[in-house]
Write a structure and sequence with these properties.
With about 625 residues, the protein is α+β, with helices and mostly antiparallel strands. Helix content is about 45%, strand content about 20%. The chain is rod-shaped.
Amino acid sequence: MTRRVQILVALALTALWGAGIYAAHAYGHLRFLDRLEATLTDWRTQVRGVQRPPDLVTIVAIDDTVVKRGGSYPLPRADLARVVDTIVSFKPKVVAIDLLLVDRSAAIGDATLANTLATGPMVLAAAAIFPSDSETVEPSSQGPLAVLPQAERFLLPLPAFADHAEVGVVNVATGQSGSPLSVPMLFRTHDKVELSFPLRVASRALDKPLTIAPDQLMLGERAVPTDTDFALPITYYGPRRTIRTVSAQSIFDGTLDRAAIENRIVVIGASVAGGGDFYPTPFDSLMPGVEVVSTAITHLVAGDGIVRDRRVRIADALAAILLPMLLVGLLAWRRSAPGIVAAAALMIAWAGLNAVAFTHGVWLNAATTLAAAVPPVAIFAGVQLWAGGRRTQYLAAKSSSLAQFQAPAVQEWLARDPNFLSKPVRQNAAVVFIDLSGFTALSERTDPDAIQEILKAFHALIDRTAVDCGGTITGFLGDGAMILFGLPAAMPDDSARALKCAIDLHRSVERWIGSLPPAIGDRLGFKIGAHFGEIVASRLGGSHQHITATGDTVNIASRLMEVAVQNGARLAMSETLLDAADFHGAPDGVLSGPLLAQVRGRSGIVTVWFWRDQDRPGQAAARAEMID
């Protein structure tokens, strides 16, 4: 499978994963994502900071001060009637009582409150009773109503109170963290549908007709920005009392400011410590339920609620599919650090866009997108790292193999310039040839394994000496080798290093042969030829290429081995090499010559010198000695 096909498969699997995660969460599975989304929503709310709410609602709180005065909670109906009566006298738009008036009390108190409720525009709270602690949505065939929270029954105010007011269900929907994230606008039982308390209050305050369409709610001409299940997402303005709040005690004290009530929406509710109607929010660990409800009412009336409608859900689905694909694509496109940096930049950009959208009133789901993106990206990155490790091992093995055939300098040059010597290059270079004598005859009489070990040791010796002197072995020629000095680039000391290599080979091979068993060592000898001049360096071969050198200089160096044998020597060097190396003899060796030699295959004469170790008997000791 090619890399392009692998990437396409990875992208397709990533898209399927993202679509599956989104669909599973949309159908009520993967509930752990709700807890993650609640946490991320709290963070985004805190990043957005406290906001000033539209000044439309006043909360009249039955708080600890009121309870201490009255001595009991719930507030007696006669006292509640006094609170309502005072508020109505200040001409509010609507009075919303966020208290469940479902039980009978003292007859005179109930009668007083009923009469008071008849004096102004009132909305009373009801409660939906569910079969379990969580409000679940069960599939049904009721069309759009199938998405509504289905209650067993509604707990309604006493008829004596409900006859004088409108009624709305006050339940809120809390996430797994306990924080209310939305308020359902509609509730149902098996035979009826009820409006929520905030929706009743907003409709009455705006004096606009409410229209329930299959996919949206309308207050007059304005659409209510609900979620796909007709729930109103809420985002908090700040901690408790951010929405204007006055204590009901000011009514009993006669200090209530008329401006806090007149032509406003007034919500009466409890904020008594220990009363139980408190919720954790991003700004406050104990937010009174009446302020949660008032936040929803403000959203409905001002139209400043956060949007999480069908279009936002479509954007969430696209993000769950496209973001992971883009991240995987970036990692596949640039497999090194730039790819990781690009993917990280994309994630930061997405997070920034998500936070900015939330700040401007659009609630994009973060948890689902993260669940869709993180696993495939982590798996793909892990596979990339594994493949990269395998590739590194392969390249290391390949480099190690290359090191067996090319000198380190040539390896580095090829790594920098893969086209090195793709075209022949003419230049000066020094060439050294070495060959074993008697090896063919020895091979016929010796065990093949032993011959292999001898040849392996001989090649290893040549390799070490050539590398130490900076030469390039262009090839092992059976029981010999050709060493080139001048690649990857000609250097001023090429001839000097070639001369040193030839002398070092002479000594090391002589010692090596002397260390072999007599039955083998006595049958072996060696010859070395070295010359300096112009060569043609090139790469030969098809798919498997090797670097070599050709030309007259190479031929002369090779033929000098014959000249050495013909003159009883083991190392023959051209005067051209000695002059280029500026060599004038050495205290530990004997240089003899010159000899004007006719080299086979060449019409001209070559001036040849011979080198021997000084401690060998019977050798001349000066460069001026002639060999006839």
